[in-house]
Design brief:
The chain is built from 14 helices and 16 strands. The chain is of the alpha/beta class and 461 residues long. A hairpin with an 8-residue loop joins strand 3 and strand 4.
Length: 461
């Protein structure tokens, strides 16, 4: 089974042994960050440092000055990794070690953008801004994200990309000195606290038939039991991993009609952004290029793994990367809807040649139409050692955390991967080779050798 590991450029730049060490694990691909959010990262094997602090969201390559000249929203550059192009330097070292390098692009998660442009971010029903979460319904944000996707994805030598946060971001956020856990939030509450009431979204709700102030008041009323002890109702339900239960609770709290209005607006904005980003990436690529989205099968969910409709996303992207860390039931809940869509989606074509008509590419409420042309019919895409053409199945990549300290289980990777494959997964992703300890990496290497032995040492599914 084809396997890729996530990596930051600073894991490789300045460490001459890094690329060969990774190749020795038995992976075929590295998914290397080219645009990333702020973070404080451990580098346990680097000869020059142990901690890298990326102070803000940035691109990890030199951005094109002509593309961004005169624009208010533009990507920031970095200064915490040596050299003018840390992505390029790391990619070359990894390629020299025999690894295929795909780009890893974080889109709608950008605290610097929110701090500098507070009008562009999600605002909850109480009026609180989320600086880390650009509102994807806003035309200026959509234009920025689509152009960033195209530039950051199509880096020299990369045959594909994985787009993270290509949709709504919300309340949940790993934030420095976070103090939001005093009242545990259910999945329904997380959704309601993530609904945006910026000027664009408020106007969208009104155009769909309900004044924005009524929508806001309904959301605030629905959330009130969350803050008041001893109040019974849908908010008391704990639905960890229960995607259907989360949405059923939202409908009970708001009423099906109002909940449907929110879904219509938000799903439309996310869907058209995703299509526009995929098309822009393909337009920017000179040759065959694989585009995967980090995703979740519940369309109402926000975050790094954005909520999507499985059949829809597999009709225009080449596949998805899905969070599969956890027990068998959690994995089945994530993989099942995508495996069904992959098997049953007769129109899903690797390379994205089955595109919806552009007239449908308009968010609910009349938001801006995304730019970019559809790829030509009959496109093909290189996927590791194989080339898939025509109506071939999409990529379903199961993403496993392999860092024990972050809740991963590298010791059970072989069994977990086998379970994921039985549920329809075609590839593996490992998060994160640069953060993992030596012991965790040794367990990963053992697991990949076991997987190779059990599958006849296949490199791709």
């Amino acid at each position: 089974m084809r396997t890729a590991a996530f990596l930051y450029p600073w894991d490789v730049v300045g460490d001459p042994a890094a690329a060969d060490r990774l190749a020795g694990l038995g992976i075929q691909q590295v998914t290397l960050a080219s645009a990333y959010h702020s973070t404080r990262a451990l580098t346990p094997r680097h000869p020059r440092h142990r901690i890298v602090t990326a102070r803000h969201s940035a691109v990890l390559y030199p951005p094109d000055p002509a593309r961004w000249a005169g624009r208010a929203l533009r990507p920031a550059t970095q200064d915490w990794t040596a050299g003018p192009d840390p992505f390029g330097a790391a990619a070359r070292a990894l390629a020299d070690a025999g690894l295929e390098v795909h780009t890893w692009v974080v889109l709608a998660h950008n605290s610097r953008l929110g701090a500098e442009h507070p009008a562009a971010v999600v605002r909850n029903a109480y009026g609180d801004p989320y600086p880390w979460a650009p509102c994807i319904a806003r035309p200026e944000v959509r234009e920025y994200l689509v152009d960033l996707a195209a530039e950051a994805a199509v880096r020299p030598g990369a045959p594909g990309t994985e787009l993270e946060s290509c949709g709504w971001y919300g309340l949940a956020h790993l934030h420095a000195h976070d103090k939001t856990g005093g009242v545990p939030l259910t999945g329904a509450a997380q959704y309601l606290m993530s609904v945006c009431f910026c000027t664009v979204c408020a106007a969208g709700y009104t155009r769909l038939g309900v004044p924005a102030q009524e929508v806001r008041a309904a959301v605030v009323r629905a959330l009130e039991p969350q803050w008041s002890a001893g109040r019974a109702g849908p908010m008391d339900r704990k639905e960890p991993g229960d995607r259907q239960g989360e949405w059923a609770a939202v409908e009970e709290l708001l009423g099906a009609e109002l909940a449907g209005l929110l879904r219509s607006w938000r799903d439309g904005a996310a869907r058209t952004l995703q299509r526009a980003a995929v098309r822009a990436v393909r337009d920017a690529a000179a040759d065959r290029f694989r585009v995967l989205l980090h995703a979740d099968p519940a369309a109402h969910r926000c975050g790094a793994n954005v909520g999507v409709d499985p059949a829809d996303v597999l009709a225009h992207a080449d596949g998805v990367v899905l969070p599969c860390t956890g027990d068998d039931a959690a994995r089945a809940d994530v993989l099942g809807p995508f495996a069904d869509g992959r098997a049953g989606g007769a129109g899903c074509r690797a390379g994205g040649s089955d595109r919806p008509d552009r007239g449908a590419d308009r968010p609910a409420g009349g938001a801006d139409r995304p730019a970019g042309a559809a790829a030509a019919a009959g496109d093909s895409v290189t996927s590791g050692a194989s080339v898939t053409t025509g109506a071939s199945a999409s990529t379903i990549a199961a993403n496993f955390t392999v860092v024990s300290g972050l809740g991963g289980s590298p010791g059970t990777l072989a069994a977990d991967a086998a379970h994921a494959a039985a549920l329809g997964a075609t590839e593996l992703r490992l998060y994160h080779a640069g953060l993992a300890s030596d012991r965790d990496l040794a367990a990963v290497g053992d697991a990949l050798r076991e997987i190779g032995d059990n599958s006849g040492k296949r490199t791709a599914c």
